[in-house]
């Protein structure tokens, strides 16, 4: 890819950078480096003469291979579930800000060999962000029991006909394994209303991607680690694209725990390590959606460590 080609257009870039309240001498972590759009904007605010630094984490080596050689940036090839481990490795005890954009880069959708989209029927059912992982979408579809597939489509895809979709896949694989996007679409297309075909297919692929990469498990670990890693006044900014992700982030920022359990003090105040900066999630403007349609479901929430 040429340097001037667009690898990824970052969602909600301006409000994200503004609400991170970046200090020139601060230490920051972009746990989803991706196309590097947010990271480049953060680095523009950092001053190396006073120690400003950014750690850019991504589990996809393709993403980090495009990271610039910049003294303000340390690329880290890892899943952000291991954030604390790597900060300890680099001798970082606390940071001023953590950013996570849970969306998928253009590159993943547009590279047919990665299998993130149904647009290319011959695409392999892969969907691994980390190519070193052994779990692929094909492995899940061909081996998981009916109930597991049903739960996956219902929880991560929010599909009302989750059980029927799972049953169709089990029936298909009894005759032959599912290997490509075409195989999956052949198995489930009769169950998808024509007027909602693309939308429902997107939800099916979304559910598979979340399961393949254990995205919810990784998000839970990231949120829990952020409370101990952020120094007082440090900010946590998370951009979500799915209601389940957003609910986890909202609960955690409000209560300090994933479940959203409200532990209150004697006066009825919620015991939480955070102060909410965004009472309501920030969403893209009409203009941003026109320029970047993939940002339409993005929601930004920001909280500050007390």
Secondary structure: elements and pairs:
Elements: H1 13-20, E1 27-30, H2 37-43, E2 53-58, H3 61-64, E3 73-77, H4 83-89, E4 95-101, H5 106-110, H6 137-143, H7 146-157, H8 162-173, H9 181-188, H10 197-212, H11 215-229, E5 230-240, H12 243-255, E6 274-276, H13 286-291, E7 299-305
Describe the 3D structure.
By secondary structure, the chain is α/β, with parallel strands linked by helices. The protein has 2 domains: 13-106 and 215-305, Vaccinia Virus protein VP39 (Rossmann fold, 3-Layer(aba) Sandwich), CATH 3.40.50.150; 134-212, Putative methyltransferase TM0872, insert domain (DNA polymerase, domain 1), CATH 1.10.150.170. The protein is 39% helix and 14% strand. The protein has helices at residues 13-20, 37-43, 61-64, 83-89, 106-110, 137-143, 146-157, 162-173, 181-188, 197-212, 215-229, 243-255, 286-291, and strands spanning 27-30, 53-58, 73-77, 95-101, 230-240, 274-276, 299-305. It has a 7-stranded mixed β-sheet, sandwiched between helices. Strand 2 (53-58), helix 3 and strand 3 form a beta-alpha-beta unit. The longest helix is centred in the last third of the chain and has 16 residues, at 197-212. 43% of the residues are buried.
